[in-house]
Amino acid sequence: MFALGGFHHSPAFPAADNAPHCSYQLDFTVDMVKPTRPTSGRKYPGDRRVRRRVRRGHGAGGLVEEEGTRNKRVANMLHEVLLALSGHPSPLFRNPEANATADPASIHSLLSPSEAALLRSIGKLAERHRELRDRVRWIESKHRSTICRAVAIGIQSHLARLQQKILDVESKILTKDASVVGAYDIVPLALIVTEFDDWHRLMEWIWATACLMQAPTSQTGTLDAGDGCSGATVINYLRAEANTGFSEIEKASTELSRIAELAWLRQLAPWIVYGKLPAFGAGDFFVQAAQGDDVAFRVVKELIPDFLAAAAVSSILFIGTCLHQIQRLPPHSTPSVASTSHRLADTKLAPEHLQHLSSLPLPMNQIQLTRAISTIRLSLSQNVLQRLLPMRDITRLLRCLRSYFLLGHGEFAIAIIEEAEARLQARQQSMGRLLRQDPLKALQDLSIKDTELHQTLSSAWKRLAREDYAEDMVLSFARQHMRLSLPNAKAARPASSGSVSRQTPQISSIAFNDLLFPSATTLGIDTGQPLDLFISPRDIETYAAINAYLLAVRRAQVRLSELWRRTSARRDRTIKKTVTNRRRHFRKVWATSSAALHLVSETAAYLEGEVVKGSCDLFECWVEHPTSNESLDDSFGSVQSTQAPEVAQRDPETLAAAHRTFVASLSYSLLLTDVPYTRDLRSLLGNIDALIAFFNSLLDAQQKADLADEAISGGDGYTADEESRLGLELDRARKKVDSDLRSVVRRLRELDHERIGAGRYLEVDMSESGGFEPWRGGGVNRLLMKLEFERVADEDARDLE
Questions:
Q1: What pTM was computed for the model?
Q2: 491 pLDDT exceeds 80?
Q3: Carries keyword NAD (predicted)?
């Protein structure tokens, strides 16, 4: 049998010009003419007549057969093996065990178990070759990812090597190479199998790669392009598979990684050089256009390859968006901006940036890629962006945010609080009349409308303008761009400064924006281009949350201070028993109000006077006074322009990263990220409003009762009952305020114990902060020392006893 010996082989005779050709032909005892298929797809003219003698007894494995039909079947076996390995279907490998059972005359009935095992090994490789060839052709032509298509083309080269290996084995047989052809021209099947032993593991790995790119779950019908994986997934898989102990798999994965990463670089190049998304395969690129907005872009984290650092992702998004905005600038812009838009086309920036990308070695190294992207970013900043977004625009925006969002301009906070209170009082008076006339319409007018909010903010601006702030450029900028409105449920579009940075503050979900008005309101600012290169909508939302938080504390301070302006509540020269009882009853209210005023005043002073002031002073100084090595950053080998920049400043992407870190650190220092504290403080501020409301209502009721006593002898029973009810509600509100005061101080003490050591400040990753280190001033202990609430609480407890 051929497992021990092999097939007897004779050299091919010259072929006729008009007959089909086969590389070789096996035969036994009879002459025959048999047109056969070429082994490797080659076409040769002619027909070959081969005559082979049966040499009986030559070797223990010599094949002896007398029946002519079986001779032909066995004679074609070696030919069929090489044809099957080339990817052609063959009946030789169609379930050999079933064929041998069904047809005793089949070739499989002549095989020993060892021979069948050898054929199964070859058959498995042949079947994998056919499946892989069909799958790769489908991926190459129909896959949605251009990276996967490129990898499929790379796999074709490996299949071509297998085909070349088959041709080499065929050539050895034809030339009677001693490594394949034995004595008496016998070709052992075991040697043929040995020639392809190194291909089994590699073909299985390539098949797994093809199945990753296009899952085989839908093979029952047609393959669906929507089921394919992304290019980033394939790149990550190939880079991980290169770390193996099998040299053939390591070599193949490295080659395919180069192909995949080169295709990825071709996606990156138009975006980072020209500000345009890839013309083909844009859905597989990690930068995507925002839905419904052709000027905003977002990052899809699932499409980011693992070799790309978070800082590099942020820089890529920033660079492409800047270039996209520059390309969209109108031709009749300001001279500096117009020169900026033409500078990209007139200089050699684009070729230089392309050279940085093309010089990257493949497979890519994360450090080298990050360095190249940083070089392009700094080159773009030095040559273009300093004219598009000058330092004066950034500093003006920062001063606007500090003055009006962070309440650095104290008169603005007082003006908007008083305007809001005046508008609410006017609504209450008109509501009382409307309730008597048309209750249904009165209920419909309860909600605050955007028109009223706009009028409130406009009145505050006019009030500031009358106080010698009319020539303030920051005030003029704020009046043009700031707005007070109802919260917008629609998500804001992503901005150019958005990134995948972890420096994102987790603001508490406790809302403070429903204290200024009965309905939730928010203070916003319209930045637009090019300021959105520096500040993102998420940053503006954080500023709005901080503004509502600080304004709520300041409002409670103002309203509690107004209680002492009610002279009639503190002084009453009439000597009556009822007045004495009222004073005794109000004594507890005054004590609670004094404690609450002390707490909110010290809290406002700490938050605004220490945290906000210290943080803003440090950040503004860092922005306005860059060092020379930071502004030019020679460590990355940046592309220097022919002319030195007019104003030394950091690039906008670095400023945006530092600003995100500043906002996150400020939120943490303001305790706005702590849910228990914000919940207790929000409850305290709400109960303070209730205390003040019941206090004013009770005082008005008492004044009405006194007037009724003077006018009518005996008094009014209804007024007395109303006074008693309001007194009871006031006492309940006072007790709630007392409880909330203790809760707030208790939580502050807990925070003082929790935030110790490095926990006192927000942990900052310097690689994502643009080199900015946030303010590290006093902690919660400074606020606790100022409160001295324990003594006040003990006195309060003694009064209650």
A1: 0.73
A2: no
A3: no
